[in-house]
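Example for tutorial group B:
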């Protein structure tokens, strides 16, 4: 039986014959809620199985929203064939009015499920592709979080700027100590922001409970009428308040020395400039460990192959697996 199918199987424990559950060094998990994200998850799993090195057979879990019952399909069969275990997660009433509202609760469920089963939980958005062994997710001793900054400023605040009404209300409700703030630099533009962390690429120690705190923080924020009014008036806030809740969870739950910023080889935003605008280009996958493709390869421009630099085998894999066959 393949290792990924048995990584969490029961194994013999102490000399007394007691059984214990094997602990995986790292467990990968993601969330999907439609056909597109299911297909992305298949590509994520396939890339890990192909290029993951020592972690190529690590356990993978996919969380689906309760009540979401995708029809039996080739994608689901492929996920099973790749050793992906499918589970469900729910959320409090009203959370799903916010665009990514269910995700903190799926992450919290994944964290709870991974306790005593994995040393590290790698929580990745479904549009992640693995190109090299993701060894950075194995956090050093004493570290409980590996993170990347958000790609660009979006709803974030420049580090030197005072809190605005939105972030001020968040910091008041959670509450966030001013002394806990630290700078992060966006990969796309080099802006230095107050703590604002990418919610699609996180490595955590499950026993530390950061994702449970994330869900708790998000619940506090989305139930606040003032913040809801701000989100109703400003669509980006409604989209990204889950990342603001993550920042609050990190700042109120972990000490600074428990955090480790992952290298820019992780969560590389391929072709980000073409999709969203940026001061930097992201057209070279040489040395990249994981990248995020967003919606780029749904309808890529004709010259994308000429623009993309990097190892020929990785570029060929991208062409064969991410680009629609008609292309």
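The residue assignment follows.
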């Amino acid at each position: 039986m393949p290792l990924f199918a048995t990584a969490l199987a029961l194994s013999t424990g102490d000399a007394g014959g007691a059984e214990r559950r094997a602990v995986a060094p790292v467990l990968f998990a993601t969330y999907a809620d439609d056909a597109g994200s299911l297909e992305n998850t298949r590509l994520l799993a396939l890339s890990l199985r192909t290029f993951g090195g020592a972690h190529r057979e690590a356990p993978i879990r996919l969380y689906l929203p309760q009540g979401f019952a995708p029809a039996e399909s080739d994608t689901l069969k492929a996920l099973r064939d790749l050793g992906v275990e499918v589970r469900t997660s729910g959320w409090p009433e009203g959370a799903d009015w916010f665009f990514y509202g269910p995700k903190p609760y799926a992450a919290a469920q994944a964290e709870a499920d991974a306790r005593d089963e994995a040393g590290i939980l790698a929580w990745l958005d479904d549009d992640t592709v693995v190109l090299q062994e993701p060894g950075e997710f194995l956090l050093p001793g004493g570290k409980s979080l590996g993170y990347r900054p958000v790609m660009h400023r979006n709803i974030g605040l420049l580090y030197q700027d005072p809190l605005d009404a939105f972030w001020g209300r968040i910091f008041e409700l959670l509450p966030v100590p001013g002394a806990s703030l630290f700078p992060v630099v966006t990969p796309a533009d080099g802006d230095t922001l107050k703590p604002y962390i990418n919610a699609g690429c996180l490595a955590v120690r499950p026993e530390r409970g950061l994702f449970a705190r994330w869900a708790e923080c998000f619940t506090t924020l989305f139930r606040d009428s003032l913040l809801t009014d701000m989100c109703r008036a400003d669509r980006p806030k409604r989209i990204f308040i889950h990342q603001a809740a993550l920042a609050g969870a990190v700042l109120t739950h972990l000490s600074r020395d428990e955090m480790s910023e992952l290298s820019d080889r992780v969560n590389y935003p391929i072709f980000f400039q073409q999709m969203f605008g940026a001061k930097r280009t992201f057209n070279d996958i040489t040395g990249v460990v994981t990248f995020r493709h967003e919606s780029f390869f749904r309808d890529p421009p004709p010259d994308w192959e000429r623009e993309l630099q990097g190892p020929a085998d990785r570029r060929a894999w991208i062409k064969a697996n991410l680009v629609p066959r008609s292309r």
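Residues 3-12+23-261 form a domain with the Spore Coat Polysaccharide Biosynthesis Protein SpsA; Chain A fold (CATH 3.90.550). Compare this with the pattern of hydrophobic and polar residues in the output above.
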